[in-house]
User: Fold this.
Amino acid sequence: MILQSEIRPARKRARFLPALAIALGALGLFAAHDAAAQKITVVASGGIWLESAKQNFAACYKERTGSDPDILVLNSGEVINRIRANKENPSIHVALLSEIDAIRAGREGLLDKLDASKAPNLKDVPEVFRKQWDDYATIQNFGAMIVMYNKDKIKEPPKDWKTLIDNTIAGKYGNRVSFPAVTMAWGPQFTWFLTTLYNGSEDEVFAKYKAMAPNIAKYWVNPVDAINMFATKEVDILVYWDGRAYDFAKQNAWAGAYIPDPGAFQSAAMLAKVKNAPEASWQYIDCVLSPKAQLGHASMIKYPVVNSKVVYPDDLKAVLTPLEKVRQPEFLKFMDKIPAWIERWNKEIQ
Amino acid sequence: MNRWLKAYIALAAVFLLLPMALVVVVSLSSAQFVIFPPPGFSLKWFARVLQDTSFMRPLWNSIQLGLLSTIMAAMLAVPAAIVLVRRRPPGAEAIQTFLLSPLALPSLVLAIALLFFLSSIGLGNTYIGLLIGHVVIVLPYLLRTVLAVYSASDPRIEEAAYTLGANPWRAFWRVTLPAIRPGLFAGGMFAFLISFDEVAVALMLSNASNMTLPVSILGYLVNNYDPAVAAISVIKMAIVVVVLIAVEKFYGLGSLTLPQRGGTASHG
Assistant:
């Protein structure tokens, strides 16, 4: 009987070496493919946001440099992980981050400070959009969390947030109301905003969350679930993003959207240049902040942008939350409390 | 089969098929939002996704990656199974457990670990890195089924081939491979489907040119609430169904079941 162990080593090598050569060749081809594709990589959100990034930002970049950027659809946490994984040779060059991740990334040394000599359109971005981030990032566009309601069911929507909360606690709307959960990505910002309505008291805000709970259909975490609940008329009042809310109301006559007094908190997408990214990244950042691309972006996504030279047409202006109606969260004051807030939420409310 | 068993099977079938049926109905909705029941029917979401490169390119990437990772995993699983079953080297149980260990890890943890490791050797967010990640994910499925089938096969048939003068390659090609083919095919199908559906590893390791369909769908879902996602999901389901029908037509799903004859080893 011939056993496999009896095969002579030389014959093994003779078979193994060509196979190894083929494998290495294949790896070489993959590596060459990756090397050939090396260009700047930027981040966008999905769907209409991705379309806007292609049509407005990438088109401008191509006009200037002759090449297309690679656009990745990722959320802020995934972006941060990728940058942390390879600081010397980052796979992402222009990042789109949440406000808090942008502060953390700046502190960790993952970002370059924005430089108006390299991205001249930065000069037209007011300081308020960059100051809390110590110039490591700038707001690209911002939104606000407002109230959507079913006009057929809610004849007199509450004028201000406190009345909405008190009416919900009193059961005036049944249990057909939905607020964001603290565990939602921008939930801590909303909680901070509510503390500003209740003398800065976190305890009072959590007491309100608890008191509202029996009359809340769902504290939502996923924005798509939330809008679906409203669209299917499972809830009559939904606290939701302004751009999407106005867009929905425009398409559905029974739906309304408004900003309760005294306004709303600002939520933003932060644009930043990753440390050790190619110099061409500045061109992309300058493109994103250019008046033409900013207006194109606002027109598509229905959220306000930050270049002070942008002039909105009247129909667009009507559905954008004005800057004076939004309050920028004081991230540095509350960001370290977020883990405790989430723990408290999980223990007391959920 | 008694009445209760039939009712139970029917209930299980409804439980499995109903969510898919709902996705199909929503994909045909004329509404701008995911509403059930839909106010009317339209094919506009299919037209939309078929023209959208942000769905179609990832779909093609997913098919390629699924096939390639399955082939590469098979190239690792088959020799591993042969050694583990016939040679029983010292520590065979430990080696087998090690090779199956990706099943025990949460895929997100595995994805982040792979991202940091592959980045440290220069393969982070490259196609090779993504392929390695998917091979790691799908290998246990292939190895498990090949081990089960190979353990149940009779080693004397291979020994007979050697006795009759077959060299190892010929014995493998003529005897071992036909014996493990059902396991290889079933495991390969599992492996392809696992890769085709995988999100976490692709989310961390893909780049703009090799983004997979599940990652693209996830990115779209986070920011959009129209039925386009249902339409692309139906296309994805259709591909899986077509694969199964093709397997049935050309190979026969029945032949993928494990051999009835008992074997000498205890794997599986």
Observations:
- Residues 1-42 of chain B form one domain.
- The radius of gyration of chain B is 22 Å.
- The mean pLDDT of chain B is 87.
- The interface with chain A takes residues 31-36, 54, 112, 115-116, 119-120, 122, 124-128, 131, 159, 162-163, 165-169, 203-204, 207-209, 211, 215-216, 218-225 of chain B (CB under 8 Å).
